[in-house]
């Protein structure tokens, strides 16, 4: 299933897509596979995530807040290597959810953009979110992603000019990631008031779905964002729940968020 189909099916069900993030290999590779599966499974009544962001842990993050930094550091200390990413992607693809990778550019550059795109596509990955790569500096990646039919998912922010939003929308595919606040990632007490306006501005330039991230940590936040966005992105709050309650807590939290974005119950077989 493509990202286009995922968002289309969610819209048909009148729900926003639930997009969950965890770092690959957190706290270990086997544990992370179980956490991702729980994120998709939900609680048996309400399903969880439609799209799964699999983060590549990075030793020098520029956008990640303390929660993701700590989880990524734990994964790296426990021996995570980029080559293990593709087995995790395959495990997520087997759940029926749509796996995408979230990564800074340097790991892709070191692996080799074409080789990375090739191996990700072979594992069942659908696209890559590149938070520190802007479209006008992404020719090598755009070529590799197109060659291997991967979606190119770029970020827009409240500070983005109309020209920048239009350029980003034109280069992207799959969906656009709207960073609802300026600053690093992390759960917040409320959703930024700039999120709705950013989605409105972005939709003026594209028909791509728009997902909102940075700050969502409760089912109430998810419901609020689902009123105006096509996708609701949750990261740090999943890490917190995993640390507190393991896979069972992640599954329960995914179901809570699922109900928040408009999922009612597990679809009939």
UniProtKB/TrEMBL annotation:
<feature type="active site" description="Proton acceptor">
    <location>
        <position position="64"/>
    </location>
</feature>
<feature type="active site" description="Proton acceptor">
    <location>
        <position position="53"/>
    </location>
</feature>
<dbReference type="InterPro" id="IPR013785">
    <property type="entry name" value="Aldolase_TIM"/>
</dbReference>
<keyword id="KW-0822">Tryptophan biosynthesis</keyword>
<keyword id="KW-0057">Aromatic amino acid biosynthesis</keyword>
<dbReference type="InterPro" id="IPR011060">
    <property type="entry name" value="RibuloseP-bd_barrel"/>
</dbReference>
<dbReference type="GO" id="GO:0004834">
    <property type="term" value="F:tryptophan synthase activity"/>
</dbReference>
<protein>
    <recommendedName>
        <fullName>Tryptophan synthase alpha chain</fullName>
        <ecNumber>4.2.1.20</ecNumber>
    </recommendedName>
</protein>
<comment type="similarity">
    <text>Belongs to the TrpA family.</text>
</comment>
<keyword id="KW-0456">Lyase</keyword>
<keyword id="KW-0028">Amino-acid biosynthesis</keyword>
<dbReference type="InterPro" id="IPR018204">
    <property type="entry name" value="Trp_synthase_alpha_AS"/>
</dbReference>
<dbReference type="GO" id="GO:0005829">
    <property type="term" value="C:cytosol"/>
</dbReference>
<comment type="pathway">
    <text>Amino-acid biosynthesis; L-tryptophan biosynthesis; L-tryptophan from chorismate: step 5/5.</text>
</comment>
<dbReference type="InterPro" id="IPR002028">
    <property type="entry name" value="Trp_synthase_suA"/>
</dbReference>
<comment type="subunit">
    <text>Tetramer of two alpha and two beta chains.</text>
</comment>
<comment type="function">
    <text>The alpha subunit is responsible for the aldol cleavage of indoleglycerol phosphate to indole and glyceraldehyde 3-phosphate.</text>
</comment>
<dbReference type="Pfam" id="PF00290">
    <property type="entry name" value="Trp_syntA"/>
</dbReference>
């Amino acid at each position: 299933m493509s990202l286009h189909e995922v968002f289309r099916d969610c819209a048909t069900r009148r729900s926003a897509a639930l997009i969950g993030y965890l770092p690959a290999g957190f706290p270990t590779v086997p544990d992370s596979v179980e956490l991702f599966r729980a994120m998709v499974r939900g609680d048996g009544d309400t399903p969880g995530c439609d799209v799964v962001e699999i983060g590549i842990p990075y030793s020098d993050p520029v956008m990640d807040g303390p929660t993701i930094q700590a989880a990524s550091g734990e994964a790296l200390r426990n021996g995570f290597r980029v080559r293990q990413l593709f087995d995790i992607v395959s495990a997520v693809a087997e759940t029926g959810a749509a796996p995408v990778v979230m990564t800074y550019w340097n790991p892709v550059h070191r692996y080799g953009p074409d080789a990375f795109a090739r191996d990700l596509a072979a594992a069942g990955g659908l696209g890559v979110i590149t938070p520190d790569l802007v479209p006008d500096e992404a020719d090598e990646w755009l070529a590799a992603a197109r060659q291997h039919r991967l979606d190119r998912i770029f970020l827009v922010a409240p500070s983005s000019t109309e020209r920048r939003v239009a350029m980003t929308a034109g280069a992207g595919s799959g969906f656009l990631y709207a960073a609802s606040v300026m600053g690093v990632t992390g759960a917040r007490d409320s959703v930024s008031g700039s999120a709705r306006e950013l989605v409105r501005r972005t939709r003026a330039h594209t028909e791509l779905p728009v997902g909102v991230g940075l700050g969502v940590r409760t089912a109430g936040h998810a419901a609020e964002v689902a009123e105006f966005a096509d996708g609701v992105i949750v990261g740090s709050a999943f890490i917190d729940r995993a640390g507190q309650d393991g896979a069972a807590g992640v599954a329960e939290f995914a179901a809570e968020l699922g109900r928040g974005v408009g999922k009612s119950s597990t679809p009939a077989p």
